[in-house]
Amino acid sequence: MVKTYIDRDSHTVTYSSAGHPPPVLLHPDGTVTFLDQATDPPLGARPEHVPRPESSTAFAKGATLVLYTDGLIERRDEDIDVGLARLADSLVRHGQASPEA
Length: 101
Description:
- This protein is α+β, with helices and mostly antiparallel strands.
- The protein is built from one helix and seven strands.
- The chain has one helix at residues 80-94, and strands at 2-7, 12-18, 24-26, 32-34, 39-40, 55-58, 64-66.
- The protein starts with a strand and ends in a 7-residue tail after the last helix.
């Protein structure tokens, strides 16, 4: 599960991830940031309750927040970093297209 809160007034995204790949922020200048500063094991994986990590980051007008499943980036016999790089490259190449495209 990934939880995000987008504050349009302060231009910040606050997020927490429980065992899922990190959200991605595509900036208007074409750079990509993986929001991986607040990750933790899946919910229920720990025997006792602990507070979830949470982090915030700023975004500029025109940025795109991408939430996705692990099936988009994972391949058998391939390092997860290859899939993340493939996603980042695709976002940079197609970042100006509409979500439907």
